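As a warm-up, study this chain.
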Amino acid sequence: MSTDRSKGWAEESVSATQPGWVLPSENPHSSGETSLGAARQEEFGKPAPRPPQLPPLKPSANHTVCVEESAVRLGKVVPVQTANAAEFWKSDYVKMPFSNHSRQTRPTYFMHRVEVSRWMIIKAALNKDRFETSKDLENAIKEYNQKYAHLWRFSGLHKHFDQLSDGERQYLLGTLLPGMAKLALQLPKLCSKPIPLLKQSKAHAITMSQEQIACLLANAFFCTFPHRNSTQPNSEYRSFPDINFSRLFANFSQRMSEKLKTIFCYFSKVTENMPKGLVTFQRCCLNDSVVWRRSPCKLTQLRVSSEGRIEEEEQGELQVDFASPMVGGGVLGSGLVQEEIRFLINPELIVARLFTEKLADNECLVITGAQRYSEYGGYSDSYRWLRYHNDETPRDSWLRLCTEIVAIDALNFRNPMDQYKICYLDRELNKAYCGFSTVDRVVLARHRPAIATGNWGCGAFKGDAKLKALIQLMAAAQAQRDVVYFTFGDTALMRSISEMHQVLQRSNVTVGQLYNVLAKYSRTALGVSMGSDLYEFIRSNVACPKGRI
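Now compare it with the structure written out below.
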């Protein structure tokens, strides 16, 4: 790869001789069938005009704004400057590596040891014009993480560099990594305002600039965040995801290599041309559970397709992240399914791991404005980074891209029969409703576009796709939102969901009535112990002529 930065890491043409970089010759989504159950376009979704009009951006007791709101009104992004930021060190806020309280013990003459500023060590280790080898990067990271110097492994990182062409390797070592290090060292200037932790049972929002996020992620890459290298039961951040990238460097695999390519694509673009927008992260808590058995809401419109992906919707829908309770799941480890892929192609999502505590059963995380930087092919072991993605999504008056993503975590059913029990049905309904509803949002939403989703909690979590589709349709109906549902190539499931939705609409079935049918199914010995077909059971309990159950 050329070292000419004007071409960019992801836009460079690549030779078929370079491992893992061969671009596919055909569209990976070209083989699906025509969608069924599609509502007429002029009636479906009813997205709000874009960009939506919002009240002026301003901080409040439950909304931390890390930029000068007066500048945003002029279309500019200026970070808030806080005096004595290096003295800040509180348990309810992100502990910054530049804090004076972040210390490291260093040896001196005559076997004495002395405590010194860890940030000074970080600056000395990262302030380089170039890194000579990947081992040079390893040594720099270990310099200010000496407690873990003998525990962390970088063999995966080294093997990734070994398989690159000379041009690619020189670009990373001589241009990109020094640029990332320079970005990381701007942390005291860009992120001096304390960043609160989004803790359980506390609804709160954080709005920050894309430049601030890039700076935080550069620090995560270089593993500078203190107190964030352990998730053991007695550790301070045991209920938070990890954020430092050390695990990603440990073991080589094709998965890890493709992850690094995707991440380097992001850093290549932001170090060349920093985006000038904002992103909002808001933790939402469902204060009052819905009495589902009494809900009078009717099912909303549905468009279901075996083609396409959630992130490719262009109507401004609320896009569902099939989340782990620890948001981002295994994005910095070995995981590489729906959530991890989304966090890779929209890397600004990864910064949520810095401040978002494990989600409770009545909580979700909503992210507005995260930019997409990469295109990809495949899934899990077949995942491949393809090229840079030019995200042309318009921005709202807060300078955020009009992309809204909601992280909701499904239950992992070790015994698949458990999911039909009422207690678990209620939990999944409430979780989905928390994500879909605008009632408990910290930053109020003025419109309710359709929800783009799919087989939430299926696959490794053993969820029944037919049941999970109904749960999401019910929660969406309660939230008064239409649904765009992707079955990811499963045409039989596409037909089943579409036909079931048509039956329920023709029968004028309410959410409450459908809930009672599902409750009856859970009590039926045949349904619970033998797993009789759920949709056939529902059909047999729906009286079409009168619309009663």
